[in-house]
Amino acid sequence: FRLYKAPIIGSDSSQILGDSIFLFLADGQLEKMHAQGNAFMLEQVWGPLYHQVKSKTMEAYFGNGQIQTLWAIANAEMYYYIQDEEDQFMGLQSSKSGRIQAVFDSTAAIQDIKWFSDIEGEIIPIKDLDPLSYRLEGFDWQADIKPKSREDLMYDERLRPYVQGVIQAGITRDIRESPNGNGEMDAQKKVIQWILHYLFYSSL
Question: What is the C-alpha to C-alpha distance for residues 148 and 143, in angstroms, rounded to an integer?
């Protein structure tokens, strides 16, 4: 799938943005995501505290529908909150690198960070930190617009035409001209229907 016009891919506590995002599926499961242009990953840690990763492009890899690794490629920047063994916040790690890799645990939270080439950074103690002052350029947390359920989609007038009725997984194969001459528009609607079905109906 090719998503344009500043799309957002979100989960419970994180979101990925970019000028365009490409999704790759294998055997009906999300396998890879590629964010092209102004790529930005946000993970809400607690309240106003967010892990932030920014780069020109990003690639994320998934297993069983769960994000496993994310690569920030070219001019990568990161803000990462450091916690101790008791989950108390110790400080903020600010870093830049040619390439950054984030590894996620089974709850889709960042578990490990690795930096590659041209590494620079600092650690800011939590007592000296104003979280609202540490936002990478392009920070845009939009969890409030994320649909939480199928019912949310049904009440959105913009999406209602796409989610009504039973959606078949193979519907995108039908791109023939319709009798009313709107074959291209019908095909686009069917693609959107399939995406919504994959994201929501299969998991609810």
Answer: 10
Quickly tell me which residue has 């095909």 as its tokens: 187
CB crowding 46-68: b at 16 or more within 10 Å, else e: eeebbbbbbbebbbbebeeeebb
| Strand stretches in the chain, DSSP E | 2-3, 8-10, 14-17, 20-26, 29-46, 49-63, 66-83, 89-104, 110-116, 120-125
Q: How many CB atoms lie within 10 A of CB 31?
A: 15
Q: Which residues, in sequence order, are CB contacts of 34 under 8 Å at separation 6+?
A: 21, 22, 24, 57, 58, 59
Neighbours of 195 (CB within 10 A): 16
Looking at this protein, which amino acid is placed at residue 35? A
pLDDT tens for each residue of the chain, 204 residues long: 888 888 888 776 788 999 999 999 888 788 999 999 999 999 999 999 999 999 999 999 988 878 899 999 999 999 999 999 898 999 999 999 999 999 988 887 888 999 998 889 999 999 999 989 999 999 999 877 777 776 676 676 666 666 655 443 334 344 344 445 555 556 666 666 666 655 554 443
Burial tier of 121 (Cβ tally within 10 Å: 0-12, 13-18, 19+): middle
Report the distance separating Cα 189 and Cα 163, nearest Å. 10
